[in-house]
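Journal club prep — side note

Before the paper discussion, L.F. wants everyone to see what a predicted structure for a comparable chain looks like in token form. Sequence:
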Amino acid sequence: QVQLVESGGGLVQPGGSLRLSCAASGFTFSNHVMSWYRQAPGKERELVADIGRVGRTYYTDSVKGRFTISRDNAKNTMYLQMNTLKPEDTAVYYCKVTYDGMDYWGKGTLVTVSV
């Protein structure tokens, strides 16, 4: 079955960096658009970035120039490099894939940006 497992979250100071990973299994990874979402306390889940099968990328305005999404199809893994982190980036970060008409989510990894 489809499984998505996020890792790489943690506590970082403002201005710092983190790299998130999403390990995927149960479907042909290279054939699907992959997405990163986040949900901050008290807020709705929002799309952060996504990446197409051949590397086309999208970023929400608030992370442009700071975050980079990438994928390694040989490793069935997606990444989110997050630089110049801000307190407002604090959230649980989720990866998502739409497979066979259904959305599948990982359990998330917590990113906390604080002094």
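L.F.'s comment for the group: The radius of gyration is 13 Å. Keep this in mind when we get to the figures.
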